[in-house]
Write a structure and sequence with these properties.
With about 375 residues, this protein is of the alpha/beta class. Helix content is about 40%, strand content about 15%. The protein binds zinc ion.
């Protein structure tokens, strides 16, 4: 029926998102959010790092009831000089009741030398052995290639060999991470293209973008256009420093913009998409934060119109000033009445309240005058 390619979505709200300053999930919060993500249609829900802190250890002691999403644990590849079966960091991951295990590995030779203090070859061995240990326990292995883009710029051959080693050892996915978040979309497109040209299959590559130049969403789309088939991100763009790629912006774009919707199928349905505003706001509630009213698609202002000239056209046909219908993402159109308004705003608000009035009624004009006068006076109060 469809010859669209499958694009996979990997959520890391409960792991990378938990690194956000001021964010502190309880075990109950994690269970609630995991369930919401599963219902929305995410393919992977990364729950945290079992063994790293009491919350994550407790969360992973009992599987949340997920219908579709693969429950995923995060951790690090084994240390050099130890066998995977004898690595205390890896043991709690291998024992966790999960479907998949995502291990972060160094792919920048500078980090291998300075942070790990091991040889490039030892790091490749750690990647291969760790992937094999995960597969041997019947879990799906993923490798997050940390600093892949910076590593590629410094030593392309080594960064590529980290990806190839992971895939040859049996990783389902090698995820290209822009860990510092400083890479620009055209660089992501070029580097992913070069990697695929060296024989690495795009359907086994993912992208993990950070938002330090406010382009995590753009970088994710650039990577998809260049051939990767998994996107990692978080709800509301939570994440360390400036955050991760915002899945709440990416999902509507993938489903509603023909450039992506015609080419790709994702686990979220158009019906599921109507719940995304609710999911975004529920996360804010859990975190006791007020929602960002300017958030694309789901913010209170995303479909708000104030100017009278916009409103009169909107009422004739919403497509005049809306790039997508607000109901497609579970949001609503808002028409404000202010000193910037015209008669159309007043008529629209009265209609919304169930009052049918003739737009030519002279009382509409008088009402508008009162509003404008009060707005003006308010400036001086
Ligand atoms: Zn990250």
């Amino acid at each position: 029926m469809t010859n669209r390619e499958r694009l996979y979505l990997f959520d890391t709200t409960l792991r990378d998102g938990a690194q956000t300053a001021g964010v502190d999930f309880s075990v109950e919060d994690k269970r609630l959010i995991a369930t919401l993500l599963d219902q929305l249609g995410l393919d992977y829900v990364e729950g945290g790092y079992p063994g790293a802190n009491p919350t994550d250890t407790s969360f992973f002691s009992e599987r949340p009831s997920l219908q579709r999403a693969k429950f995923t644990a995060f951790g690090m590849t084994k240390r050099a000089g130890r066998s995977a079966s004898n690595d205390p960091g890896l043991a709690p991951l291998l024992d966790a009741p999960v479907d998949a295990i995502c291990l972060v590995a160094k792919s920048w030779d500078f980090h291998v030398k300075v942070a790990l203090g091991v040889s490039n070859e030892e790091n490749l061995e750690s990647i291969a052995d760790s992937v094999k240990a995960v597969a041997a326990r019947g879990r799906e292995p993923l490798i997050d290639c940390e600093h892949f883009f910076d590593g590629y710029k410094a030593n392309p051959a080594y960064a590529v060999s980290c990806v190839k080693t992971a895939l040859e050892a049996g990783a389902r996915w090698a995820v290209l991470c822009d860990t510092n978040g400083g890479t620009l979309p055209h660089e992501v497109g070029r580097i992913v293209g070069e990697l695929i040209a060296q024989g690495v299959p795009g359907e086994r590559l993912g992208i993990h973008a950070h938002n330090d130049t406010e382009q995590a969403v753009a970088n994710s789309l650039a990577a998809v256009n260049a051939g990767v088939r998994q996107i990692q991100g978080t709800l509301n763009g939570l994440g360390e420093r400036c955050g991760n790629a915002n899945l709440v912006s990416l999902i509507p774009t993938l489903l509603l913009k023909p450039e992506f919707a015609d080419r790709f199928e994702i686990g979220v349905s158009l019906e599921g998409l109507t719940g995304i505003t609710h999911v975004s706001r529920t996360l804010d509630e859990v975190l006791n934060r007020s929602p960002n009213r300017y958030a694309p698609y789901v913010g209170e202002s995303a479909f708000a119109s104030k100017a009278g000239i916009h409103v009169s056209a909107l009422l004739k046909d919403p497509r005049t000033y809306e790039h997508v219908p607000p109901e497609s993402v579970g949001n609503t159109r808002r028409i404000s009445v202010s000193d910037q308004a015209g008669k159309s705003n007043i008529v629209a608000r009265l209609e919304a309240a169930g009052l049918h009035v003739d737009p030519q009624d002279e009382r509409i004009g008088r009402l508008l005058e009162v509003v404008k006068e009060r707005e003006f006076l308010r400036l001086f109060l």
